[in-house]
Amino acid sequence: MTTTGPRVRETSSTGGVPRSASTRFRAPAHVRNVIERRRVLDALRASAGAQLTVIHAPAGYGKTTVAVQWLQVLRDAGASVAWLGLHRDDNAPHWFLSHLLEAVRRALPGGVDAIDDLAGLVEQSAEDVQGYTLSVLLELVAAHEGGFVLAFDDWHLVEDAAVRRALVHVLDFAPPNLSVVLTSRRRPQLPLSRLRVRGQLVEIDAEALRFDLDEAREFLVELNGLRLDGDDVARLSENTDGWVAALQLVSLSLRDSDDPGALIRGFSGRHHSVGEYLAENVLDALAPDVLDFLLATSVCDRLCGELAGALAGRGDGQAMLEELEERDLFLRPLDGEREWFRYHHLFADYLRRRLDRDHPGRAAGLHARASAWFAAHDLVSEAVDHALTGGDVERATDLVEQHAMLLVEHSRMVSLLGLVSRLPATAADDRPALLMAVSWANCLLQRAEAAQSSLDVLRSALPAPGVDPDGADPDGADPGGVDALGEMRSEADVVQACIDIYGDRTDRAEGLVRTSLDRSGSYRPWVVSVAANIQSFCDIHAMRFARARERQQWARRFHDRTTGPFSGVYGRCFAGVAALSQLDTTGAEVQLRGAVVLARESAGRRSHAAQLAGALLGELHYVRGQLDEAERLLTESGELGAESGVVDFMIASFALLARIKAGRGAADEAAELLLEGAQVADRLGLHRLRTAVGAERITQLLARGRIREARRVAGDLPEGSCRHGGIGARIDQLRTSSLAAVHSAEGDHERAVALVQDLIVEARRRGQVRTVVELSVQLAGIQERATRFMAAERTLAGVLDRVVARGAPQLVREGGPDVRVVLERVAARALHGASADALPAVEQLEVVLAAPGGAAAPSPTDLTGREREILQMLDLGRGNQQIATATGVTVNTVKWYLKNIYGKLGAGNRTEAVSVARRHGLLG
Question: What residue spans carry the region label Disordered (predicted)?
Answer without folding.
Answer: 1-23, 462-484
